[in-house]
């Protein structure tokens, strides 16, 4: 695989991490919307937590958003590999299959 092997794996890993980061951001948005809808539906009972007799940390729905941190880190990793073109990756991938 030579020198290009690690470069190709590195590129694939950073792309995969970017995709996972975007997925986490989208899941967080969906969870937040669901929480808002449930609070609306249970508004007459004092909200979702009151209706389900949840208190403290049981009630708190926290979906952390790692998107900004992951995106920043991936962009830092990609800088040295920015000179590698898609054509070069395709050529070296086909050679080493």
From TrEMBL:
What is the protein named? Uncharacterized protein
- Record the organism: Sphaeramia orbicularis (orbiculate cardinalfish)
Per the UniProt record, the lineage of the source organism begins with:
Eukaryota, Metazoa, Chordata, Craniata, Vertebrata
């Amino acid at each position: 695989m030579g020198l290009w092997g690690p470069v190709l794996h590195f590129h694939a890993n950073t792309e995969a991490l970017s995709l996972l980061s975007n997925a986490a951001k989208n899941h967080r948005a969906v969870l937040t919307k669901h929480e808002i809808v449930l609070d609306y539906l249970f508004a007459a009972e004092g909200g979702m937590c009151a209706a389900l007799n949840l208190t403290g940390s049981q009630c708190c729905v926290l979906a952390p958003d790692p998107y900004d941190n992951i995106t920043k880190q991936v962009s830092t990793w990609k800088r040295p590999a920015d000179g590698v073109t898609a054509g070069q990756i395709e050529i070296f991938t086909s050679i080493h299959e």
